[in-house]
Amino acid sequence: MTRGERAADIGWGLAGIALVLGLWELATRAGAIDPSIFPGPITAVRMAAGRLPASVFLDNMGWSLFRVTVGFALGAVTGTIVGFAAGWYRGFGYVARPLIELLRPIPPLAWIPLAIIWFGLGEPSKLFMVFLGAFFPVVTAAYHGITHIDPALIRASRSFGLKGVAMLFHVGIPASAPDLATGIRVGWGLSFGVLVAAELIAADRGLGFMIMNERNSGGSVSVIIVGILLIGLLNLVSDAAIAAFIQRRIGRWHGA
Amino acid sequence: MRQQLVQIFVVLIVVAAILLGLELGVRAGYLKAYEFPPASRIAEGFVELATVGFPTGVTIWSHILITVERILKGYTAAILLAVPFGLLIGAVPVLDKMTAPLIVFFRSVATLSLLPLVIVWFGAGELTKVILIGYGCFWVMLSNVVASVKYVDPVLIRAARSFKANGWALYREVVLPAALPRMFAGARIALGVGFMVIVGAEMIGTIQGLGALIMEARSFYRSEITVIGMLVIGILGFAISTGLATLEHMLLPWGRSLDRVQR
Amino acid sequence: MKRVEASTTPAGTTGLNADRDSGGRMAMIDIRRVEKRFSARDGTETTVLHDINLSIAPNEFVCIVGRSGCGKTTLLNILAGLDKASGGEVRIAGERVEGPGQGQGVVFQQHALFPWLTALENVAFGARSLPIGKPEKIERARELLQLVGLEASAGQYPREMSGGMQQRVAIARALALDPEILLMDEPFGALDELTRIEMQQELLRIWDARKKTVVFITHSISEALMLADRVVLLAPHPGRVARDIHVDLERPRSRTDRGFNVLYEQIWGGLST
Questions:
Q1: Measuring CA to CA, how many Å separate C19 from each of A16, B11, C168, C211?
Q2: Residues A102 and A166 in one domain
Q3: A106 in contact with chain B, both atoms CB, cutoff 8 A
Q4: Chain A contacts of B260, Cβ < 8 Å?
């Protein structure tokens, strides 16, 4: 793709965004949509800023980000280890796979009541939820990656004297990296969604809580809208960051 | 063959060990029955759910039906809207370029985060839940339909053109069939998303439906009912995805759906 | 080490003197009565290799030619120590082959380079079992890349290289351990004609410079005749030695040479029966 084509694409994209935002703002000003229920973008930000200080937004955002990051890290690391082990060591796989397959169809959100039963209403239950969101996609991806290595690579490494754990680390894991990367991206998206929902339903801090609370206390719709947009933006930016990181580490050698 | 037998054997042993462990652990007093409901309690709970119902009057079957009904309404609406829009956007490159970042953004908005907003606008009734499911399913399906049209193998198009198939005929006889496998895959993912959304959406503002069931049960300390609910949800999810996969196989014998599609 | 004695037995025959070749030297690779059987899932047994006897001298360049299904790759895997024979034995320099790492360098059909390592790192990987430090391994890798003419591509990934370049890196990697034997399984099969001819000349150059024993599998008769001192024909179902032909042509060889074409007809005839 030439640079000119790239620029044109971005131009069209921005045009699309501008169009939607513009229509939204116009509609509210023209009265087609009641601004007290659905304020336009500019109005919403202004109203939200007037209703709650920026520090409140930032504080809640911080809590949400903390939970997502920590929960995701735990889930991804555990998922990677379990997935690789289940794929590489058959015995472990016999035990682990069915357990995982059994629990996987249960959506992470369905674990909320049980999480509360086990961990109470504090941070651990939220972290557990996010952990679940990340664990399943990652463990599946890791397992798939480690069990689908090109046999030619295994044979080649054997001819150089590699075996056992050394082969797992020098060949198995690098060869699985592309699959694992996909699992991580999916897991992150899922974790994010799970966290927001969990905060909506059972929390006293965080962005999810903030917007639910605003509705429950009869506050301004603008805060809700801004909160939703913030969540969407955070998700987008973090996913793009992860994708860029993956592209840098793996993009160069993968894709033949 | 031998491997499968070993796997089945191991599964049976592991499951039996867990159930037994739970039962004994609770009876011996090591585990709290509230946190780890043993099989005996779960069995009793299930009987109650199936007959008397929890809350009284609402059996497990009602719960299932209500949840499924909500999903179906939202899902159908989403698909019916996403397919024509997606086909249009996929076919017109300018439209695609304009809408691409928007679609990505709307897809990134966590569906459940819209719950408070939708409640403010439409109240806390059935419509809200259907709208939420519809939203979640719509964007996922849309991006997959667009991709299914965009990424039809150009070799196929060129081959068709060389046989003088152009314009509408080209679209109908080559592009659409080639796009179907991926559209089906998108439909499958969208249903999964809808399923996840409803479970969360039912946890607020309603006492009927599977999501509501497991939340209610907890506040009444009936943890075994929560567990039953979770298992039913899992089975339902599994049945839905397997059902769709089978349907896809039957309708599209020529195409396999892709593993990596947009979420 | 056995004492070397003069012998008048013709090359490649079975018998008491099978561990010596026609020149009386001790065989580098000694393959005796090797059998390989596979059991399918339903219990039926297939014999892939039957009564293979070959004696290969040091520095000899042997090509194994045959149709698909004649067990050439299986034989190579057994020589490489990656597979075990069901019967008979293989000895390298007098020692039984128990596994890889007994002086075999292997070049596979699909280069099997690690996609996540650069050319330099791939070659250095070949030297990993050597008791030398990392900088020495890198140095060695650099030398080998120079040998195959790729020192400029040291930092490239396999994905960024052409098929010919990839195979050259694979050869360099196989040479990293300075093995006595080079086992090559149709390494140029996936390359286009021109590149293949280039690579054949490269290989001969390296063989001449480094003095290795080479066992080279190919399905191309002309490739075998261009490269080998000896062409062994394997017949399929089950795989067995059909012919063992010495190629007495002087190098560099020409495809238009009369001697070349006579041998070509011979081998072609042997393959067609």
A1: 80, 54, 33, 21
A2: yes
A3: yes
A4: 182
